[in-house]
Amino acid sequence: MSRKLRVAVVGAGPAGVYAADILTKNEDVDATVDLIDRDPTPFGLIRYGVAPDHPRIKEIVKALKRVMANPDIRFFGNVAFGDDIKLEDLRQFYDAVVFATGARRDRELDIPGIDLDGSYGAADFVYWYDGHPDVARDWDFQPHAKEVAVLGVGNVGLDVSRILAKTAEELLVTEIPENVYEGLKKNATTDVHVFARRGPAQVKFTPMELRELSHSPNIDVIVHPEGFEFDEGSMEALKAAKSQKLVVDVLTKYLATEPSGAPHRIHIHFCQSPVEVLGEDGRVVGLRTEITELDGTGNVRGTGEFKDWPIQAVYRAIGYYSDVLAGLPFDAAAGVVPNDGGHAIDLDGSPIPGVYVTGWIKRGPVGLIGHTKSDAAQTIGMLVDDIDALEAPEHAEPEAFDRYLDSRGLEYTTWEGWEKLDAHELGLGDAHETERERVKVVPREDMVRIARA
């Protein structure tokens, strides 16, 4: 290609940033990338999906910042695909469009009572304590809700459990906004019950996340022996994955440890499948589970025996789900844009010219950061292979897209604007009476105002 390749990446989380990095570093291509995100800030779930007491995981932001310093990569925040801009608009300015929009909302759980007052999606709670601008400022902590259920045994379930079990004062040293600190002071939770449908060899925790549960002096981690069993399939899984064996080792240590008498407890229950949220006067008063048993392959079957738990709130953490993207087909069962590993696929089974997907919108909400990078490399490899077939945009100069956004009256943010907001939040942390790295700004209008000042 004799001219610069112009590519738009919709979604500025890790998947989008890695795609931009891999493309602009490809020695066979002269390319520039514009990252476009509905949030005023970059980094996606690293900013709004990682618990605030996980500073080590947030170290990934430093690596992403180094990528964004590349002059061939630009950032346009506060621009919502489907609302502010559509695919046909982007085609005017770019040779190709890569969607890296991730998965932002909770997967549904179809059991009776799941819509009762006091039943929540984990993603909504995560967005609240991470200060996302599009959720309510207050959380519905009820003074009677002392025993809480968390459904799901992935890292998000552990994050939610840990935040519910910790005190507001413990979390004050993190980057939580003031409204979150004030809200957490109203949290009456003393016991968090985490329910797993299967056994300890099938949980999706990572060892580090599981070990961190016990780092708080205010929390006892109690692993209950019922359902703590291994069949042949479980043993094969432990042989195949070292990380899974480490998880079981941590769980075994918790199982053998006597509670210290800490004021808060996180209980982990195995082989308990939620079948109904129990209600009274429209509110959650309990959870009914069916006791399951391993079937020899690592899967479970129901026993027909049920148990009721006195629970006053339920948080479902059974996975994220992607939003439908305007103008693109969507596989509702898998929660992804149909694709062949990189190309978006139309309803007739053919690739959509110049349209690609990467990250969770491509493969579903599974895997860690390392999977995201290899996933992006696969997609960008396909894009590079297609380069001679890509149709040139009508307006190829970078400034044309800026002018278009200006003509629409969109108050978009830039990388330079993010650096202003970043410095502002760090300054709020420095000025706080307690030692804090930063304090997040929550209202969208405030973030945009600071970034565009």
Describe the structure.
There is one protein chain. By secondary structure, this protein is an alpha/beta fold. Helix content is 32%, strand content 21%. The chain has 16 helices and 17 strands. The chain has helices spanning 14-24, 45-48, 60-68, 87-90, 122-129, 155-165, 168-171, 178-184, 207-212, 232-240, 242-256, 360-363, 369-385, 398-407, 415-431, 444-452; strands at 5-10, 31-36, 73-76, 96-99, 105-106, 119-121, 147-151, 191-195, 219-223, 264-269, 272-280, 283-294, 300-309, 313-316, 320-321, 343-345, 351-357. It has a 6-stranded mixed beta sheet. The longest helix is centred in the C-terminal third of the chain and has 17 residues, at 369-385. The chain starts with a strand and ends with a helix. The model has no long low-confidence stretch (mean pLDDT 95).
Output the radius of gyration: 23 Å
- Walk across the major sheet and give the strand order: 3-2-1-4-17-16
Fraction of residues in β-strands: 15-25%
Runs in which pLDDT lies below 50 for 5 or more consecutive residues are none
* Global mean pLDDT: 95
Count of separate DSSP helical elements: 16
Give the overall shape, derived from the CA principal axes. Answer: globular
Summarize the structure.
With 453 residues, the protein is an alpha/beta fold. The protein has 16 helices and 17 strands. The mean pLDDT is 95.
Task: Break the fold down into its secondary structure elements and pairings.
Elements lengths: L4 E6 L3 H11 L6 E6 L8 H4 L11 H9 L4 E4 L10 H4 L5 E4 L5 E2 L12 E3 H8 L17 E5 L3 H11 L2 H4 L6 H7 L6 E5 L11 H6 L6 E5 L8 H9 L1 H15 L7 E6 L2 E9 L2 E12 L5 E10 L3 E4 L3 E2 L21 E3 L5 E7 L2 H4 L5 H17 L12 H10 L7 H17 L12 H9 L1
Parallel strand pairs: 1-2, 1-4, 2-3, 4-17, 6-14, 7-8, 7-14, 8-10, 9-10
Antiparallel strand pairs: 5-15, 11-12, 12-13, 16-17
Helix pairs in contact: 1-13, 5-6, 10-11, 15-16
